Structures are given as C-alpha cells and as structure tokens.
Amino acid sequence: MEIRFLTGQLSVSPQIASTDIEAIAAQGFRALICNRPDGEGPDHPGFQEIEQAARAAGLAASYLPVESGKVTDAQGEAFGALMAGLPKPVLAYCRTGMRSTTMWALSQARHMPLPEIVGHAAAAGFDLKGVVRRLVNGGKTPVEVADASHEVVIIGGGAAGTAVASSLLARQPGLDIAIIDPADIHYYQPGWTLVGGGVFDPRITARTMASVLPHGVQWIRAAVAAFEPEHNAVILDGCRVIKYRQLVVCPGLKLDWGAIEGLADTLGRNGVTSNYRYDLAPYTWRMVQQLSRQGQGRAVFTQPPMPIKCAGAPQKAMYLSADQWLRERMLDKVDIQFCNAGAVLFGVPDYVPALMHYVERYGIHLNFGETLASVDGPAGTAVFRRALPDGGMAQVTREFDMLHVVPPQKAPDFIRVSPLADAAGWADVDPATLRHKRYENVFALGDAANTSNAKTAAAARKQAPVVAHNVLALRGMAHGEAHYDGYGSCPLTVARGKVVLAEFLYGGKVAPSFPNWFIDGTKPSRAAWLLKERILPSLYWEGMLKGREWMARPAVAS
C-alpha cells in the first residue's frame, strides 16, 4: 500500500485491499473515496468489499467511479462536493492514484493557484501537464503537441504485449519501443486454474512488471484513454499524448462483474468465487475443502456467452473440484451443476468424447442455454436466464453451497468507443496478418482482437511473432508477410494428473503439436498434465516473454 500525500486533508493511493483498511484507519484516515470502477482489472476487490471493511473500522466510504483517462469537469465537481462533506483526512484511490489526483486538481481549479496544484501533484509523483493543457485549451487536448514519440508503441504489457516487444527486439535490437500499461504486476493467468485446484501457490503466478518487460523498452506507467489514429496518437490518463509510427494494441479484455446483479456484493464470500481473479482463485480451493468438510452440498459452475478468455477454464475449475471430492470419497454427496450459456460442452467436437467421459464419471448435470443473471450470496441462490426452444426466455433459480462464476467479458472501454473497434467493440483486424483493416500502421492481437481464435495465452504466443514480423516488414526491415493460422490451445485439466490437450486452428481444425505416441490430445494423459504443470510456465516466462519463438515461428508469404 503506497499512500501519497497531496494536502493536509487528502492523500491518494493505488488500489487498496480490504486487508489494508485496519492500517489505513491506524494512520488516522477517517474516510475513503473509491474512484476505480468495479471489474476494471482481474486482481482487485470491488467497492462493496472495501466498504464493508471500512465500516467495520469506523471509516466512511464513498464510490465515485471514473473510467481511466476520462475525468470530466462534472466528476471533478462531484469529487470536490464529496471532499466537502466527508470527515477528514480522506484517502482516495484508483488503479494508480492518477484519476483521484486529476479529479482533485479539477475541483481546486477555482480555489488554488495553478502552480500550487501542479506542485502538490508533482510532489506526490503525478504529472499534471496534460490537465494543464486541457484547462488552458478549452477542455481539448491538442494532439499536435505530444509528450513523447516512439517508433513502436504497444498498448498492454501482458502476455501478448511483452511477447511482441521481445520478438521485435530479437529481430531488430535497439528498436525504439514503448509499452503503455499502468499495472505493477504481470500475471501468468493460465496458472490460476491450478491455484483454484490446490496445485499452485498463487504467488508463483505473479511477477513485477519491471522484471518481465524486455531490457531497452520504455515503460509508460499510464492507462490509455483514447486513440487518434488519424494523428498517430494515443491519449493517456491525465490527457498526455504519445505519438507513434506503428501501434500494437493488446490490452486484454474486460471482466464485466457488474453485469451480474448482486455478484459484486458477494464475491469472495458466501461460497461465491472465481478462478478468473488472482485474489479469488485461492478461495475456490478453500470452498472445495469446505464442501468436503461439510460432507455434502451443491456446487454450481457457470459459463457466460462467448467470447471469453480461455473457454475451457470454467470446466477446468469444475473437473478439478470434482476430482478432489472423488479422492475424498464424497463425490456422491455433492450435486454438481454446470450452467453453460452455450449449446455444446466444447466448441471443437473432437475433444467432446473425452470430456463427456469425465462429466459422466463425476455425475455432473449439464444445463445448456443458461446464463447467470443474478446472485444472492447470503441466501445461497443464483438466478439464470434459460433460452427456450421457441426463442423465449425463462428464469431458473438454483441453490448453492459453492458457486464458481465466470463473468461476461468484452473489449476494454477505450477500445469499444474508439475508431479501432468493429461493430461488436473489438479491435478490427485481418485474421491472418493481424493488421487493422482501416489503419495500415496499426496491429492488434490477443484477447482484444476480433479474430475468431480461442482467446488463450497459446494463441498470443503464436500471434506475437506474426505481428513482430509484419511491423518490421512495414518499416522495410523484413521481407514478406507473416500469417497467423488461428492456432489456440486449451489444456483441459480433467483430473489432478490428467489433461486433455486441445489444440486447434481457425474453423476448429485439430492441430496437434506432438506425435500421438507422446500426447494424443483427444485423450486424457499424464504427459499433457506434466506439460501444463511443469513445462508451460517455464515456456511462458523464459520463452514467450523473452522473444524465444520455440515452436512459434510464423509462416511467411513472399
């Protein structure tokens, strides 16, 4: 927890956790303001959780959510009104503290000299030059005046962004590259399934962003607010402007926790959990163990409409949980329900027979066409919308002792409202070259692109070298055009020690990487489990993120 002093009445900080509240109260703070929308990232608690802990500690808590980089004058006024009514001193927080600082600055524009506002922010480590330009330019940011310019700008320092940067530098050492990402931590998200299954310690899935980004890349720790592709410019949180010659867009996607009524109020409590969040995956394992201690109960696992990140992950959580109950000889006392908004168990038919074997082995009840609509944690009930054959909808209420939720997912807000988006809000690219369909110097890959492949780290591993080659070809530093074939992989953990290794291309064409005598992906195997547990994490950290394109060299058309 890094608290930064702005004035005698206000300090700001990056995202806090409920476990920080006691220490915050001990430092004398009497009120909190949350400026970060729920569901903005995969690693932070919702406001309801913070508010509950704050009240228990005697602190007031207010919620004024603001999208990154989109602080309005009205929100600045609202922040000032909150400050006027709250007991002092106040701690305001968002992802980094920048939004809170920006709103404070706007609220003080008529009450404090501008140099003093900028000075207070600078002393706390925040650069408000962009806000100054906004105030003196009628609320508009002149993109003609850039804070910085780079040859290649990459949006997102996750799996895709880091891999692209490393692949570019492996081909062209010394290339001027900037990665824009406000996060301090880089997560190996495929490992969270094994955290929820009691196999991995969550700490091994997280490393500092500074330790992961390739040497020589400039890291701009800020959030993107908007794109101006006609001006080759990116607008950042705080209204700063970064210009580029080539742009690579790969910020991941947004987990829309708020789309399910009541979910934010009960996540991490009342048996409601999700392996899609770093801090909740350990709770999944605790709930599996708790159900074992109870000796009976109902476990409900959900899957929302596509597209989602790693379409097999909802099932992985279910199979590993069921396997644990089987090992403890209480599986027959657990009612396992899988509520899937889709119409099939898995999108590639070749792998369904192996999965159905485990569905039957564990006695799992399949409920297709059911979408989670609301959750009442204290009551232990979840309401689903069920699609009827005649096109109508019905409601189904299910009781639970454990509820594993996978939230609906969509492109980040700054992508959906940008010129880069297609009608559904995803970055609109050619599925083979990953170049934008309208802006030739813009590329996109990973979860935010509108390609039809599975949204997995394995897909990003194959996409990154394609983008790296095509960026350099556009710059005249490489020959030919690299193509991505839609490869995706999903190691389906059907039991502890057994994995069905699904690998496929565009159109669901099966594409195994290994000979059948070693790993037959259509059957569960110990070898595939060892690959998932021991090989893939090292391949991720030491291969993919370092530009080593093992088994990922792209096909290049002359």
Structure description:
The structure is a single chain. The protein has 558 residues and is an alpha/beta fold. The protein folds into three domains: 4-128, Protein tyrosine phosphatase superfamily (Protein-Tyrosine Phosphatase, Chain A); 148-253 and 411-557, FAD/NAD(P)-binding domain (3-Layer(bba) Sandwich); 257-409, FAD/NAD(P)-binding domain (3-Layer(bba) Sandwich). The protein is 29% helix and 23% strand. The chain has 16 helices and 28 strands. The strands form eight sheets. Strands 6, 7, 10, 11, 12, 13 and 24 form a seven-stranded mixed beta sheet that branches. A five-stranded mixed beta sheet has the order 1-2-5-3-4, with helices on both faces. β16 (297-303), α12 and β17 (334-340) form a beta-alpha-beta unit. It is globular. The N and C termini lie far apart (52 Å). Pfam families: BLH_phosphatase, Pyr_redox_2. Residues 3-109 form the Beta-lactamase hydrolase-like protein phosphatase-like domain.
Summary?
The chain contains 16 helices and 28 strands.
Describe the secondary-structure layout.
Layout: E1 4-5, E2 10-13, H1 21-26, E3 31-34, H2 47-56, E4 60-63, H3 73-85, E5 90-93, H4 98-107, H5 114-123, H6 129-136, E6 148-155, H7 159-171, E7 177-180, E8 185-187, H8 192-196, E9 206-208, H9 209-212, E10 218-220, E11 224-228, E12 233-236, E13 241-249, E14 254-255, H10 263-266, E15 272-273, H11 281-294, E16 297-303, H12 313-327, E17 334-340, H13 352-362, E18 365-368, E19 370-376, E20 381-387, E21 393-399, E22 402-404, E23 409-410, H14 413-416, E24 442-444, H15 457-474, E25 481-483, E26 488-495, E27 498-504, H16 526-543, E28 555-557
Parallel strand pairs: 2-5, 3-4, 3-5, 6-7, 6-13, 7-10, 13-24, 15-22, 16-17, 16-22, 17-18
Antiparallel strand pairs: 1-2, 8-9, 11-12, 12-13, 14-23, 19-20, 20-21, 25-28, 26-27
